[in-house]
Amino acid sequence: MPHSPIVARTLSSLHRARTELCKRNATLALVPTMGALHDGHVSLVRLAKKRAKRVAVSIFVNPTQFAAHEDLGSYPRTWKEDIARLTAEGVDLVWNPDATTMYPDGFATRIAPEGPALAGLEDKFRPHFFGGVATVVAKLFTQVRPDMAFFGEKDFQQLQVVARMARDLDLGVKVIGAPVIRERDGLAMSSRNVYLSPDERRTAPVLHQTLKATSKRMRAGDAFKTALADGAARISDAGFALDYLEARHAGTLAPITSFSEGPVRLLVAAKIGTTRLIDNIKA
């Protein structure tokens, strides 16, 4: 029967656990999460277990990446189910700090990322977001001191921001992206999918379907601008409020208009009902 992971909630208990787990220079991988774990998170844990001797998972709903009008208070919290999943996967350590541990009284230092954080995608609609993400991930990296950290490609811009930050600040952590995990109908797995009504859930796969259709048209020779405009219309006609459907350079996230400009990533964000969904594919 799998052993339950060590659960650390204070920095002193975290440091003791890490010292014990990483004796004889055992490698340590970190999977940062906000809980409400699904099969996408589990895929990251399994990948981490293949690459490192020890695996830690952080569970912290980070308040600094939510705007005042967003869903911090209602964000799903499923602690018992999460621990059961992590126990079944053989995770060694769970780092579960509270907000006062992460942001104690007088906390006054924040990271303001640039580069991919200012690509005009998520940052255009959630200008607060990447500062909050960069700050909390930097703290997690310095607290847990992993050799490597795993992030899903569903949050593709976030992955680029975190990877750049780790390189630029010499944090000594190798940031590794993992493929999007999808439901059978193509919907990208997300903790926020639980917000979807039955009708919205039936409509939600339109995002992935449109990404695939748009990529196919572009590869068949259609102009990027035309293919993207038609894709945007299809998403809006399905009942979404579209934030963006963009073709970007997969490395820099700069806008591009042809395959000759580099590897292409198609990215989309749209709201259906009250739920905002994001997705992306390699074009």
List its salient traits.
Pantoate--beta-alanine Ligase, Chain: A,domain 2, single chain, 283 residues, 10 helices, 9 strands, six-stranded parallel β-sheet, Rossmann fold, three-stranded antiparallel β-sheet, 2 domains, 19% strand, alpha/beta
Unreliable sequence segments: none
Q: Estimate nothing, just give the exact number of structural domains.
A: 2
Tell me what the CATH architecture of the largest domain is: 3-Layer(aba) Sandwich
Supply Rg. Answer: 19 Å
What order do the helices and strands follow?
Answer: EHEHEHEHHHEHEHHHEEE
Question: What portion of residues is helical?
Answer: 25-40%
How would you sum up the global shape? Answer: globular
Strand line-up across the major sheet: 1-4-3-2-5-6
Give a count of the beta strands, DSSP E runs of length 2 or more.
9
User: How much of the polypeptide forms β-strand, as a percent range?
Assistant: 15-25%
* Helix and strand composition category: alpha/beta
At the fold tier of CATH, the topology name of the largest domain is: Rossmann fold
CATH uppermost class of the largest domain: Alpha Beta
Count the helices. How many?
10
